[in-house]
Design brief:
The chain has three helices and no strands. The chain is mostly helical and about 100 residues long.
Length: about 100
């Protein structure tokens, strides 16, 4: 029994307890793939749930791209309309013989 209570064994036992506690806790600065919680979380997904999640991500990505493209087209269209209005206004003022 004195072997199990020797300082060396006590330190090893404490280190094992610290290691187990460290592996069981999450923290701000850790590698996600080494976290026990993340590994359990990743293993909990079935293949169908994983495909569904991946499909949803792709759908969001496509929708963001379409919305960004739509906004770009709308801005270009509005700029063309403003330019045409400007030219029309200048022609009208010229026809009315107002000095530019």
């Amino acid at each position: 029994q004195t072997d199990t209570l020797s300082p060396r064994n006590l330190v090893v036992h404490m280190d094992d307890a610290k290691t187990r506690a460290r592996q069981a806790l999450e923290s701000v600065s850790f590698d996600v793939h080494e976290s026990r919680q993340f590994v359990d979380y990743a293993k909990s997904f079935t293949a169908r749930a994983s495909r569904t999640k991946g499909g949803f991500r792709w759908l969001c990505l496509v929708l963001v791209g379409l919305v960004a493209g739509g906004v770009a087209v709308l801005i270009q269209f509005l700029l063309m309309q403003v330019n045409e209005f400007n030219l029309h206004t200048q022609r009208w003022l010229f026809d009315m013989e107002v000095g530019l």
